[in-house]
Amino acid sequence: MILRNKVVSKLHNFMILPAFILFFIFFIYPLIKGVGLSLTDYDGMTKANFIGLKNFISFFHDSRAKNDVVNTVLFALGSAPLLNIFGFLYALLLDSKFRGKGIVRTIIYLPAVVSPLIMGYIWYFILQPQRGFLFATLERIGLSVSNANWMGNRYMALWVIIIVNVWQFVGMTMVVYLAGLQAIPEEMHEAGKIDGATYGQRIRYIVLPMMIQPIKINVITNIIGSLSVFEIIMALTEGGPGYSTESLSIYIMRMCYGSFTGYSTAVAVILFLLILVPVLISLKFMKSKEYDA
Known about the structure:
The protein is mainly alpha-helical. It is built from 14 helices and no strands. Helix 4 (63-95) runs antiparallel to helix 11, helix 8 (157-182) packs antiparallel against helix 11 and helix 13 (248-257) runs antiparallel to helix 14 (261-292).
C-alpha cells in the first residue's frame, strides 16, 4: 500500500515521457542524423563516404549560397519587424470599441488560414505585368504602368515578397497581441487616466511592460518563419530573376534534388544555426526586459 501511494505520488513525473519521446523521434534523432549526413558526400543513391567538413567549406566558397544568405536575412529584416509593428497596431485598433469589429478582425486574419503557396499563386496572377488584375485596374483608372514588372525587377521583387508575406500573416501576429491586450486589467488603464497619463504614455508605461510574453512569442515565431521562408518565394518568383530572391530553403531543396544530398544537409545545418542564433539572442533580450518590467 505504501509502495502504491509512492508510485501514485510520483506519477506526474512520468507524464513528460510522451512529449519527450516525440521530441526525440521528430527533432533530436533527425538533427543527429542530419549532422552526420552533412559530413558525407551522399548523393541520395550511392553509398555515403565520410568527408569531414568539406561540405561546410564548400558552402562558404559558394557565391550563390552567400547571396542566398543575404536574401534570407534581408527578407527576415524586412518581414519580421513589419509583422510585429502592424500586428500590434491592428491589435490596438481592435481592442477599442467600434461597430463591425468582428468583421474587421475576420478580414485581417482570413489570409493567414490560406496556404502560403496558394496565396503566392493568387498574388502572382494579381501582379503579372500586362495581364494581371493590378495592372488592368491601374490602367483603367488612367495610371500608365505599361513598363511595370514588379516581380521581374531584382530590386523590387524581394520587397514585393515581403509585402505579400506581411499582408498574409499579420493576422496571426495580431491575434497574439490582441489576446495580450485583453488580459490587461481595465483598472490599470483607469488608474493611468486618473494620474493624467496620455494614450501614448499608457501604451509605453502600462501596455508594453505587460505585453512581454506576447511580444516574445511573436518575435520568435516571426524570426523562425522569415528565415525559413520557402512557399511564398517559390510561388511568386521561384527565386528569380536569376537568384536575386532565392532563399536558403529553396537552395537546400534544389541542391538535394540535384543529387547533392550531403551538401544540402550541411546547408540545412547552417540554416538551423542561422535561425537559432537570433532566437537565442531575442530570448535573452526579452528575459532581461521581463525582469526590468
